[in-house]
């Protein structure tokens, strides 16, 4: 049974490690491990902090929105990852202060 004993024990998902920034961080950490500058435990600590920081920043500071309307063609759920394939009719991208761009 898992227990939450502090703020550092909160679970953060590894969603952003596949982003270009996450991949660059992973590559840099791998190089540092290979050269002997850091140990693997420190690299894991850095990756966990990256997961936490990316999640917090995107949930609190992101101001842009994207709205897509269309017809759902296919929906898949595989390994707790949802895939939705749409035939879009209208896309709206912008932030709170802009009217956005329509396609």
Automatic annotation (TrEMBL):
Residue span, Transcription initiation factor IIA gamma subunit N-terminal domain: 12-58
Subcellular location: Nucleus
Keyword Transcription regulation annotated: yes
Molecular-function GO term, any one: translation initiation factor activity
GO cellular component: transcription factor TFIIA complex
Pfam families (alphabetical): TFIIA_gamma_N
Domain of life the protein comes from: Eukaryota
GO biological process, one term: transcription initiation at RNA polymerase II promoter
Keywords on record: Initiation factor, Nucleus, Protein biosynthesis, Transcription, Transcription regulation
Keyword set includes Manganese: no
Summary of the function given for this chain in its UniProt record: TFIIA is a component of the transcription machinery of RNA polymerase II and plays an important role in transcriptional activation. TFIIA in a complex with TBP mediates transcriptional activity.
Protein family per UniProt: Belongs to the TFIIA subunit 2 family.
Protein name, per record: Transcription initiation factor IIA subunit 2
Natural source organism: Puccinia graminis f. sp. tritici
Gene: TOA2_2
């Amino acid at each position: 049974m898992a227990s939450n004993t502090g703020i550092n024990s909160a679970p953060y998902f590894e969603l952003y490690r596949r982003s270009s920034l996450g991949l660059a961080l992973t590559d840099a950490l791998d190089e540092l491990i290979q050269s002997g500058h850091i140990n693997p435990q420190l690299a894991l600590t850095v990756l966990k902090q990256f997961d936490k920081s990316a999640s917090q920043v995107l949930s609190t500071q992101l101001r842009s929105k994207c709205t897509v309307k269309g017809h759902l063609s296919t929906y898949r759920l595989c390994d707790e990852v949802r895939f939705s394939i749409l035939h879009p009719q209208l896309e709206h991208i912008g932030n709170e202060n802009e009217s956005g761009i329509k396609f």
